[in-house]
Amino acid sequence: MSRYARNDVLKTVRTYLKFTQRELAEEAKINSTYVCQIETGARKIGHRVAYQIWTALRPAFDDLGLTQEDLLRGYREVVW
């Protein structure tokens, strides 16, 4: 069972880029196990790691209209 909510933003960006978890980890210079744990909710993403991912994959975030705050939250907040 997950301690935290799944991070759908990270998985969305990863699948948009057609990256494996290992490829995303290499781009962001983090451990691939950590990517899996963030996506499944076993671990919460920290600010430093979110910044590393955001910096490495910023064009994809921009293409998808996602922000660094969305990544930290794990989902996109829709305001009506």
Q: Mind explaining what this structure looks like?
A:
There is one protein chain. The protein is mainly α. The chain has one domain (8-73): lambda repressor-like DNA-binding domains (434 Repressor (Amino-terminal Domain)), CATH 1.10.260. It has helices at residues 8-16, 21-28, 32-40, 47-64, 68-73. 24% of the residues are buried.
SSE layout and pairings?
Blueprint lengths: L7 H9 L4 H8 L3 H9 L6 H18 L3 H6 L7
Helix pairs in contact: 2-3, 2-4
Quickly give the CATH architecture. Orthogonal Bundle
Report how far apart the termini are.
Answer: 32 Å
* CATH class descriptor: Mainly Alpha
Order of helices and strands: HHHHH
- What structural category characterises the helix and strand content? mainly alpha
- Strand proportion, as a percent range, falls in under 5%
Low-confidence stretches: none
Structure in a nutshell:
By secondary structure, the protein is an all-alpha fold.
Q: Features of this protein?
A:
62% helix, 434 Repressor (Amino-terminal Domain), 80 residues, mainly alpha
